Amino acid sequence: MRRSGDRWKGGLIRAVEGGVFLRVRVRPASRREGIAGVRGDSLVVAVHAPPEGGRANEAARRLLASVLGVPPCAVELVRGQASRQKEFRIRGPDPEEVQARLQQLLDEVPED
Q1: How far is the C-alpha of 90 from the C-alpha of 22, rounded, in Å?
Q2: From CA 5, how far away is CA 86, in angstroms rounded?
Q3: Would residue 105 be called left, alpha or beta, if left means φ above 0 and alpha means ψ between -120 and 50 degrees?
Q4: Structural domain boundaries in the chain
Q5: What is the pLDDT of residues 13-63, one digit of tens each?
Q6: Prediction pTM value
Q7: CA 20, CA 78: separation in Å to the nearest integer?
Q8: pLDDT attached to residue 33
Q9: pLDDT in tens, 76-91
Q10: Residues linked to residue 64 through DSSP beta bridges, in sequence order
Q11: Cα separation, 27 vs 40, whole angstroms
Q12: Which fold has domain 13-90?
């Protein structure tokens, strides 16, 4: 997983009216839950929930809301319901706010 360099190029975060789109790769059924790094052009989000019945999607949505400081209703899964690769729309924050918060979290991710 990439930890250095300009991780914000390539479309990980994209500004849209009223918020941002965020590309996410979900790791369901993980032992540890949280932001796990960046892989390609996606933020890696690890969740405890299994990938059945939309439970991992919901867990990822709630985790993103928590780490970005927005209410869960402000985070919407818009693409990738049945895939590990997803795109979420986060209403409210601007791209710079999201980038700053994610950078802070990524700096705390332990090396593999």
Answers
A1: 7
A2: 23
A3: alpha
A4: 13-90
A5: 988 888 899 999 999 999 999 999 999 899 999 999 999 999 999 999 999
A6: 0.86
A7: 12
A8: 94
A9: 999 999 999 999 999 9
A10: none
A11: 15
A12: Conserved Hypothetical Protein Mth637; Chain: A; (3.30.1200)
